[in-house]
Every structure is written in C-alpha cells, then in structure tokens.
Amino acid sequence: MATDARSEPLTRGRGFNAAAAVPWIGLSLVALLVVWLAINLVKTPADFVSIALEGITLGLVYGLIALGYSLVYGILELINFAHGDVFMLGSWISFSVMAQHLDLGPDSAGFTVIWGLALTALVAMVFCGLLNATIERIAYRPLRNAPRLAPLITAIGMSFILQDVGLNRLGPAPVSVPNILPTGTVFTIGGNNYRWSSLIVALSAIPVLILLVWLVQRTRQGRAMRATAQDQEAAAMMGINVNRTISFTFLLAGALAGVAGLLYALYSTNIQYDQGFTLGLIAFTAAVLGGIGNLPGAVLGAIIIGLIQQFNEGLSWHAPGSDWTQSIVFAILILILVFRPEGLLGERTPEGG
Amino acid sequence: MAETPLPDHRQPWYRRWAGIPGEWRRRWRGMDARQRFQTGLVLRVLLLVFLIWVSWPLALFVAALMVIQYGTPYLPRRLAPYSRFLTPTVVLIVVILYPLYFASLAPMNILGDYPILGTMVVMGVYAMMAVGLNIVVGYAGLLDLGYVAFYAMGAYTCAWFASVQFANHKFHFGAIGVGSNTPGIHISVWILLLLAGLLTALVGIVIGLPTLRLRGDYLAIVTLGFGEILPQVARNGDNLAGFNLTNGPNGITPIDPPGIGNLNFLTGSGSFWTSERLYFWGVLALVAITIFSSLRLRDSRLGRAWIAIREDETAAAAMGVPLMRTKTWAYATGAFFGGVAGAYFASFKQSTFPGDFSFNISAFILSMVILGGMGNVWGVVFGAGFLAFLNQQGLADIGHWINDTFGTNLDVPKYQFGIYGLIIVLTMLIRPEGLIPSARRKAELHEGVHDTPLYDARHDAA
C-alpha cells in the first residue's frame, strides 16, 4: 500500500501530521479486524471454516451484482442506482417462472429441475438484460451530456419505479421460494452442514464469471467496451458504435443481475420487494471495495463483503450480530472511500477484465 | 452553443415522440420576446381556467399573484423598491389566516378536500427540510442522499431532552404541561429546536469533514451510507453497551409539546387557540424564518461561494474560495434546518420511531427539491408543499376521483413511490430546472457548465 507522491506534504513541519496518519489509521483498523478473526478462529475453528464457506457462497452471488455496477461505472462513470432493483425483479421473474409456471418444487425429478432452472435462468437473463438496456435508453442516454448528477438522480427515480413494480407484484411481505435444489449435506465440519444447494449456487456462479471475463477480454465486443470505457470520443473515431456498446454493457449487466436474482432466490429461499435496495448497496460497496470499474476487484470485494457479513452474523466471540450488518457494510464503504478511494485492486478502468 | 437546436431526428425520445407538444416547443423557440410575453399571458389564462374548474378560491389566489407579477412595473417609482415584498406578504397573510377560513372551502375537483391543519403542519415541516436540502443540493451542488439522518438527529435530540427517556436524571427548564415530579429531562421545546439544529449541524460537519473531498457521486453514496447507519443505530440503540439511548424499535414517546407562557400547544386554550392552529402557526413561523435565512444566505458571501463551487469547482478554487470550508458550511447549514424541522415534527407527533427514518424519506425530500426547482427557494417550498399534500391526503383523493370518473378500481396510494419515481425521472428529463426554476440554474442545466462563461448570466431575483 504505497502512498503516492501527491499525498506527501510539501512542508515537513514538526508535530502531528494528519495526512500522514491516514494510512496508519486505515492499517490499524484492518489489523484489528484480523486480530478479531484470528481469535475467533482459535476459539471455534470448525464454526469459522463453515461460516467462511457460506460467506464465499454468498459473496459469489454478490459478485454477480457487483459486476453489474462495475461494468456500468467503468463505461459511463454512472452509479446505476436502479441496478439493485433490476436484480430484485430478476428474483421475482425467476420465482414466477420456476415456482408458478413450471411448478418446480422439492419433489420435482432431477431432470425436470435441471432444464427448468436452465429455462428460468435464460428467461431471467433476457428479461433483466432488456430491462436494464431499456432503462439506459429511456433515462440515461438523453442525459449523457448533462451535469454528472442528473443521470444519478434519474437512476434513483428509476429505482423507485422498479421497486414499486416489485411491491405490486410481490406484495409487502417476504415471499418464500420452494426448496428446488437438493438440501442434502455435502460434508460436515464440526457439526455444521454444508448443503448441496449452497454448493450448486457457488458452482454455478463461477462459469458465469469465466464467461464474462472471456467476453470482455477476448471478443471484439469486449474490446469495444474497454475502448469506450477509456475514451468515448476516441473510440467513436475508431469506428466503434458507442451507443450500441453502452447498450450492450447495460444488457450484460442486466443479464448478470438476472442470474444473481435466480441464484439469490434459490440460495436464500426468501425474496422481498426491497431486497434490491439493501443488496444493491451491499454489492455496490463490494464493487467500491475491489476498485470500481475493475472486474476481478468486484468479485474479490464481493467475496470479502460476503465473508464479513457471515462472520458478523455467525461468529460467537464479540460479533456485533445481524442487527448491525448494514451499518458495518456502510462503515466499510465510508472507510474505503476515505482511506483508499481507488479500492483494493486500485484501477479506474475495466481493463484487464 | 446552447441555442443551436438539434435536428428532429437527433432529439431525445421524449421530444420526438411528443407530437403536438413538440410542435409547441418548436414554436416557442422561434418566438421573440414580445410573442413570448403574449403567449405567456394566454397560457396563464388557460391555467386560471383550469384552476377555476379545480377550485375557484385557489384560482383567485393564483390570479392575485399573477396580478402582482404583471402589476409591479406600473407601481409609482417611490414604491418600486418595496415591490419585492408584495408577493411574500400576500402569501403570508393568506396562509396565516388559513385556519380561520379553510373549513368553509368547498372540496377541490380531482385533488379532494383542502389540506386540514394537521396536513398543513406536515407540509410545513417538509418545506423546512426541503429548503435545508436545497442549500446542500441546490446552492452548493452536493448531492445528499442521506438527509433523513439529519431529520432523525433532530427528532432524537428533541426526544432525549423533552421526555422521560432518561428517567434517572431529573431536570426541568421551561417545559410546558409537565408535572414537577415527572422524572427525565424536560427542557422547553423552543430551546430544543435551537439545540437540535446545532447538534445536527455538528453531525453534518462530522459527516462532511472526511467525505467532502470525494467527487459528487461518491459523496452521494457516502451520505446515503450515513443516512442508513444513523437510523440503524437508533433501532439498535436500546442496548449500546448496556445503555438505553434510543429505546430501540419502541421509539421514544410521549414527547413534550411546545408552549408559550401558559398556552400549551397540545391542549390549546378555548375555541380560538386550538391545538392544531397553534401547531400550524408555530410551523409557519419556523418556515418563514427558514425561507428568510435561506434567501439571505444565498446572497451572502458564503452563498455566492456555494454557487461558484456548484458552477465550477476549479474556477472557484482559483478565485480563492476555500473549498472544504465552504462545502462544510453548506452541510452544516443544511443539516441545521433539517434538525430544527425534525425536532418540531417529533414534538408535533409526540413520538419518534426508528422506522420513520428510511431512505424513502431522503428520496422524497430530494424529489421535492427537484420538482420545485433546484436552487430556487420558492420553487422548493411549492414542491415540498405539493408532494407532502399528495402524500398525506391528495393521492387518496385523486384515486377516488379516478375510480369515480373512469369506473376503475385502482388503489392509487399503492403506486405512491412509483409516482414519485416517475416525477423525479420526468422532471430530470423534460424540465431539469424544475417547475419554478432559478434562472441561473436553468442556464447551467441547459447550456452545460463546462466552458460557457456565466459572467453575464442574470442573477435571479426570485
């Protein structure tokens, strides 16, 4: 964590230097966190490992949402506030397709479940992708040359509209999703079961991530995206259709949110109309933690946030508990922005996928 | 740069699809000043006709304002300097007398009954908060998505020092209607309004200092984070290391009412000084003070520094405006009004619950500022009053009207937040300067602030 030259004070006076103390405060906070984790690991090693596994699973789901924020921020420098609610609607459409139209449930045969979920994932991806691209077309594109805050404000408005749609579709109470994935135990660590459903969710997030990396790194369209992110005007001069590239980015981000919606519905078996707001902010924090605009950073940040959330809710020694999860996530967000605004992996452009 | 209109096929979708309104827009563009004046007259008459259909007393009020607007140039020169006080005075008189005549007004078309006094108090409180937020968003151009934190801080300050929350301590100072043996801290609510404002301003500074270095959208997210953290602290605050600070989800209730002399706002006195009227006049006085301070602040050295920062931060810094200090002052001042409003609201509702302080409130206040017109105090007050009225009474009445007229069975309040979202999006797309814009802000939003000199932009005298 090297401090760059600009933060060095010009005059070296005597006495307390606030600017020089900032990295040390940050580091000592991280050290405190590590000590707390280490004490917990020593006290209850079995719990610690199983909680960590759950945390990674949750983190991978968050990662899919965080990537959507990161992709959009990388290309437009816009915090797409409505993204969390697109994810919520992804959960909703997955729920209505798989549980209401296809009648999947705990008793469905294995083959039915596989093609049913594949179909659901497809529907959710297409729906959320088109939804996100439409939002960009209607609400963000006309404001591309407006002051920076204008599209952010429309994004908040869009988030309200989508949340209201969710409220009218799902109702104010949480809706429980049937256990479609097998709930049997994969392995047991010190009395804690790791369930098949968690493993399947974690494993199905990974190919999506690999596909995304391939798309951004190896394809023509991905190259266009990276070029547009670097410099829109120059990209346009090189013959890239900037508008279409941005639309495609939104489509991609929406599709990821759709998959995340499906996986979240399967993982938590509980969906709610305002989950998009809460989880969207958590995922945004993850994206900032990893370095917004940086794709591996988003996944890394999401896994860290997932771990922190599960540790906070699960560990026994001096854990604040689930009442404080949101506060802790936001505190991390604020601390990161204050101490290391460029994030862990410290790049501003989504180059290097 | 700004006056070269795009060709039709390059216009954004809402203008290309607009059809007939698009035609109007093109005609307006082609008009000279005289034609625009005449068109303005015709449009105002049409508005009046519509308002007469909605409710004639409202139309009368608006007509009086229009007469003032068109009449001021014809005042004798000796009176001309006072003409700017004319509109505020008329509005103030009409509103002060509102409790005396509102019961005899017939219900409006579409919008239903005129707001009852309880609704008016809520509208006033929201107007104060919106004016406070307008200082941060409208003047200084810093997007604050966590304004509800200031509201919560004010409400809890009032609750701590004017209730039985800290029953181990006993301290009475000027509180009205509290028995002398009641435990807890009881300080006069008027003092608490000031205290709440100051404490909240302190919170604003504490939030602002580490975060104001961040760029606009990051700042928005950080304020949002604080706006989520503070209510959660309130929700979990019944056991902070064994100390009951906020009484958790059960909230703090009852909170003492304000009072003047022996006149208790909660019980009232006689048939004239009823409780509702007292609360209404109380909030009216606070709103008037808020508007006045906000207007004077805007024209002060500090206010001009805020606007300079909003228009071009780099240029402002080059001209010697201290960025951090000026922004922190914007935060503190905005927070101050939020705190006062929160304290008065808590005292009016006699309670404060953590559930009152969700992100929706922040966005609701923000949509008031945007709808009314960022940067223009009168617009913001109008936006706040209108949206708060819709929220309290109007939306349900509009729903009844729609269902009666079209024979549908819609539950309009269910679409409440969708409607607010729609208002935000449409305002930003179609009229980003708001319903009653500030001329300066309008120039910024339409011409962009990047390289357009604004030195000759007219300073709006609204």
The global form of chain A is globular
CATH architecture of the largest domain in chain B: Orthogonal Bundle
Strand order of the largest sheet of chain A: 1-4
How many domains of chain B? 2
Q: Tags for this entry?
A:
heterodimer; A: 353 residues; mainly alpha; ABC transporter involved in vitamin B12 uptake, BtuC; two-stranded antiparallel ribbon; 12 helices; 70% helix; disordered N terminus; B: 462 residues; 2 domains; two-stranded parallel sheet; two-stranded antiparallel sheet; 18 helices; 4 strands; globular; disordered C terminus
What would your notes on this structure say?
- The complex is a heterodimer of chains A (353) and B (462).
- Chain A has one domain: ABC transporter involved in vitamin B12 uptake, BtuC (Orthogonal Bundle), CATH 1.10.3470.
- Chain A has 12 helices and 4 strands, in the order αααααβββααααβααα.
- In chain A, the strands form 2 sheets. A two-stranded antiparallel ribbon of chain A has the order 1-4. Chain A has a two-stranded antiparallel sheet with strand order 2-3.
- In chain A, a hairpin with a 2-residue loop joins β2 and β3.
- The longest helix of chain A is centred in the first third of the chain and has 32 residues.
- Helices cover 62% and strands 3% of the residues of chain B.
- Chain B has 18 helices and 4 strands.
- In chain B, the strands form 2 sheets. A two-stranded parallel ribbon of chain B has the order 1-2.
- In chain B, β3 and β4 form a beta hairpin.
- Chain B is globular, with a radius of gyration of 23 Å.
- The two termini of chain B are 27 Å apart.
